[in-house]
Specification:
Elements (H helix, E strand, L loop, with lengths): L8 E3 L12 E4 L9 E2 L5 E3 L8 E6 L13 E5 L12 E4 L4 E4 L13 E8 L10 E5 L5 E4 L7 E9 L8 E6 L6 H8 L8 H27 L2 H24 L7
Length: 259
């Protein structure tokens, strides 16, 4: 049997004609819990089952009547289906307006798998009430989540746990502080770091080398353009066209002359 933690369990011993005075209930290798009760029909009642109640329960009819060398009437092995354990390897990585929470993959119990993972967070401030929590429900297949829209440079309390149909597992509680949101003056300080030790000669030399390389490239390109035979051929063809255009003008107007 697989009872849930916290539920009441009743173990039946044989037929309804058995009286409670005729049976003897025992557990292998340990004593029977003191809060258990043998009912009038011989059944054993276990209120609010917990982990310590697990074991093999034996209903013995002959032992109650003083008989030896007998087989027990009924045996029950109780294995509790419990709540999930604590999440393993929980880490919080803060940023300016968000935090990343990571954990290890949860191993599901085939009989009672984890249903979800719950994350609660709030600002650690005396002005906030105890119930001023933001709650997120996460699929158990995930191993990380980002929490957005947080305030920079603020201390947060975070709680995370796994749940199944029995209940909630132990909570893992962490505190983290989001990073500061740099102002313009702080950014200017970071940009100007090391300006006092900066050597301008190295920068000047680099500029001269780049400009010299660019100048040489332009000169080489111009020389290539002038010496290109296709360009010279185009120039010669343009001269021939001008000479051909002069012939009709001379014939029509004898007084036309080339200027």
């Amino acid at each position: 049997m697989f009872p849930k933690i916290g539920e009441n369990v009743t173990l039946k011993c044989g037929s309804n004609n058995i009286k409670n005075s005729d049976v003897l209930w025992t557990i292998k290798h340990k004593e029977i819990p003191g809060r258990t009760k043998v009912l009038k029909n011989g059944d054993l009642f276990i209120p609010s089952f917990n982990l310590s109640d697990a074991g093999v329960y034996i209903c013995d009819l002959a032992a109650a009547n003083g008989y030896a060398d007998h087989a027990p009437l009924t045996e029950f092995e109780l294995k509790p289906i419990s709540i999930p354990g604590s999440l393993i390897g929980v880490k919080v990585i803060p940023n300016t307006v968000l935090v990343l929470i990571t954990w290890r993959q949860i191993e599901n119990n085939d009989e009672f798998p984890v249903k979800n993972i719950t994350i609660k967070y709030k600002i650690m401030d005396e002005r906030n009430s105890r119930d001023d929590w933001s709650v997120l429900q996460v699929n158990p297949s995930k191993i990380s989540i980002n929490i957005y829209s947080l305030l920079p440079n603020t201390l947060y309390k975070i709680q995370i746990w796994a749940s199944n149909e029995v209940g909630n597992g132990p909570k893992t509680e962490l505190t983290t502080k989001t990073l500061s949101d740099m102002t313009e003056s702080e950014l200017e300080k970071h940009l100007l770091e090391g300006i006092d030790t900066f050597d301008t000669r190295a920068w000047t030399f680099a500029v001269i080398v780049i400009m010299s390389t660019f100048s040489i490239f332009v000169i080489a390109l111009c020389c290539l353009f002038v010496k290109d035979p296709r360009v010279q051929k185009r120039l010669e063809n343009s001269d021939d066209v001008e000479r051909i255009e002069l012939i009709p003008n001379i014939i029509i107007n004898p007084g036309y002359c080339e200027t």
